[in-house]
Structures are given as structure tokens and as C-alpha cells.
Write a structure and sequence with these properties.
Order of helices and strands: EHEHHEHE
Structural class: alpha+beta
Number of domains: 1
Mean pLDDT: 95
Strand content: 15-25%
Oligomer: single chain
Helix content: 25-40%
């Protein structure tokens, strides 16, 4: 039986500026990117996604792509999954990234 409060983990998706495509490392990780599709960062956190996004932008435990190119959260891509237990969030982060790549998104995951 799960502990009370154990389902407080979240996956989240951040829209990235188009300028992220200028980064060779990002391009190499997205060989099947479809021109015109969004660029996103997919992550998981034990915090509220809004707070986690603010921390990225402030440079606190930040992913460089989110800190430099993060525009906004895209809750329509992740809200249906949250909240969930830690292990499920770890798995969903990977699955969501794969699903978005299959749809042609440019995706970065830590």
C-alpha cells in the first residue's frame, strides 16, 4: 500500500524557443525532428511544475536549455498524468519524451 503523500511527483513539459535548434547537441539528439513542430524539454519533479519551471529560469538545479530558452509550461501535454508515485513519474518522463519525438517534436531530456 502506498504511503500517504507518495503520489506527489509530476512530469512536465516546457516549450523552448526556436533558437535552441542552433545548438548542435540539441540537433544531434533530434534527427527525426519535423520542421515547424515545437521544441520542448520533458522533466519530472517532486515539486509543483510551476515552481520547478521558476527554479530552472532562476538557475537553481537548472537545465541549461530551459534556463536559456524556456518559454512556458505546456500543461495540455502532461496534466492528465499528474500526480503519480516516483517510479511512475520516472517512467512517464521517458515515455512522454519518446511519444513527443514520434510526433516530430524536438525534445530534450536530462
Amino acid at each position: 500500500m502506498a504511503r500517504r503523500g507518495a503520489q506527489h511527483y509530476h512530469v512536465y513539459v516546457v516549450q523552448l524557443e526556436d533558437a535552441v535548434w542552433n545548438n548542435a547537441r540539441f540537433r544531434r539528439c533530434n534527427p527525426d525532428y519535423v520542421l515547424g513542430m515545437p521544441f520542448v524539454y520533458v522533466g519530472m519533479t517532486g515539486l509543483d511544475p510551476d515552481l520547478r519551471f521558476d527554479k530552472h529560469k532562476a538557475g537553481i538545479q537548472a537545465n541549461a536549455f530551459v534556463r536559456e530558452h524556456g518559454v512556458k509550461l505546456l500543461p495540455h501535454l502532461y496534466e492528465v498524468y499528474n500526480p503519480m508515485p516516483y517510479r511512475a513519474a520516472c517512467e512517464m518522463e521517458v515515455e512522454l519524451g519518446i511519444a513527443l519525438r514520434e510526433r516530430g517534436y524536438g525534445v530534450w531530456q536530462a
